[in-house]
């Protein structure tokens, strides 16, 4: 699989950009993942108040770290990891936390190939204590094919035809001998 960053101008080190303008993908599968936050993707409904307190405990940094950990679980389940990430849509309830997000992103993604991203400020998310939510797209490798039947080559086909012809000639000879 090949993931090619698209830059309309050369990326310079002084830009220190936390995102790429876009990506082209060749020979992979696209993974679209739902919005992730600090809570597990699958959890009880209605929420258990004890578990809920743990999910939203701590500050923005804590919630951001848990959110990235939850995203990685989905990437791994699909056969990918951070280098496979193409695009993130990030929703923050407090845009002043952007530098912490950028710090965690810089530690998570290769600075030469960060994913494309959109950052949006929102007044509230699915839970009043939730500070961020991230959805995205990744390109994961096509898994290797398992054992499967292959078409015989021309040589194998020719050998089989010759063997069948010998068997037919032998049977015809045996039939003629039986008549005499």
What does this structure look like?
This protein has 180 residues and is of the alpha+beta class. The protein has 2 domains: 2-141, RutC-like (60s Ribosomal Protein L30, Chain: A), CATH 3.30.1330.40; 152-180. It contains 4 helices and 6 strands; from the N terminus they run E-E-E-H-H-E-H-E-E-H. It has helices spanning 49-55, 60-77, 98-108, 154-179, and strands spanning 2-6, 22-26, 28-36, 85-92, 116-121, 132-141. Strands 3-6-4-5 form a 4-stranded mixed β-sheet. Strands 1-2 form a two-stranded antiparallel sheet. The longest helix has 26 residues, at 154-179.
Topology, please?
Elements: E1 2-6, E2 22-26, E3 28-36, H1 49-55, H2 60-77, E4 85-92, H3 98-108, E5 116-121, E6 132-141, H4 154-179
Parallel strand pairs: 4-5
Antiparallel strand pairs: 1-2, 3-6, 4-6
CATH topology of the largest domain: 60s Ribosomal Protein L30, Chain: A
Strand count, sense and barrel status of the largest sheet are: 4 strands, mixed
N-to-C series of helices and strands: EEEHHEHEEH
CATH level 4 superfamily of the largest domain:
RutC-like
- How many individual helices? 4
- Overall outline: elongated
Oligomer: single chain
Broad CATH class of the largest domain: Alpha Beta
Q: How far apart are the first and last residues' alpha carbons, in Å? A: 69 Å
């Amino acid at each position: 699989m090949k993931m090619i960053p698209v830059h309309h101008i050369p990326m310079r080190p002084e830009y220190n950009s936390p995102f790429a303008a876009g990506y082209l993908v060749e020979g992979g599968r696209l993974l679209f993942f739902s919005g992730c936050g600090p809570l597990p993707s699958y959890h009880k409904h209605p929420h258990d108040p004890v578990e809920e307190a743990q999910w939203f405990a701590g500050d923005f940094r804590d919630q951001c770290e848990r959110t990235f950990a939850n995203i990685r679980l989905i990437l791994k389940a699909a056969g990918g990891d951070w280098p496979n990430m193409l695009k993130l849509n990030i929703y923050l309830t407090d845009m002043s936390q952007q530098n912490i997000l950028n710090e965690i992103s810089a530690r998570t993604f290769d600075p030469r190939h960060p994913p494309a991203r959109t950052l949006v400020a929102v007044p509230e998310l699915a839970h009043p204590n939730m500070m961020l939510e991230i959805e995205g797209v990744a390109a994961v490798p096509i898994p290797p094919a398992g054992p499967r039947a292959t078409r015989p080559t021309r040589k194998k086909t020719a050998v089989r035809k010759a063997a069948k012809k010998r068997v037919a000639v032998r049977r015809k000879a045996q039939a003629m001998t039986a008549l005499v």
